[in-house]
Amino acid sequence: MTAEPASFEFDADNAARAKAIVARYPAGREHSALLPLLDLAQRQAGGWLPRAAIEFIAKYLALPRIRVEEVVSFYTMFFTRSVGTHVVWVCTTTPCWLRGSDAILDRCKRVLGCDVGENSADGKFTLTEAECLGACVNAPMVQINDDFYEDLDADKVAAVLEALRRGERPKTGSQSGRHTSEPEGGATTLKGGS
Asked: Given a cut of 70, is residue 191 above it in pLDDT?
């Protein structure tokens, strides 16, 4: 687990990004940059928002710290404790559940050796349950960091996790070979001119 840092500020690259983000909003509406700035800070801090980062963002946007904490505690994409290199979001909403997300979640627990809300012993993974990741037509699916892995079963999710554990980057998207969200048997319309 990563220790809580005493201070936080954007590095040079992220300071420039933050300035550009805030500039997108009209004068007097700079507070609207809160979500993208929190995301930027979380990425810089290694996938989570230490208290020092929350305080920094509050000062940066001239907001009361409690307003920033309210946003951080509301959105599930923000973490206030150290997470693994790979955050695994298993969708368990109805479309994924109907297509086997329980088996996928169980396999994730076994492969990673941790339960939902925990980090794996090697610190590489954090297992999380999600309510709808928006790829219902390709259910069941998981999101790992910023990538979607769709059309999964227990063996396919285990293969993705093991590849990540070895330091590889598995193919994202459908794991069954279908193109985007076309029917599993292939395209059925617009097959040619008539």
From this structure: no
Cβ 176 vs Cβ 157: under 8 Å: no
The strand order across the sheet containing 86-91 reads 125-130, 86-91, 142-144, 147-150, 173-174
Indicate the CATH number of 86-174 among 3.30.70.60, 3.40.30.10, 2.40.30.10, 3.40.228.10. Answer: 3.40.30.10
pLDDT tens column, 89-105? 999 999 999 999 999 99
pTM: 0.86
Per-domain boundaries in the chain: 12-74, 86-174
Residues 181 and 166 sit within 8 Å (Cβ to Cβ):
no
First vs last Cα of the chain: how many Å apart? 62
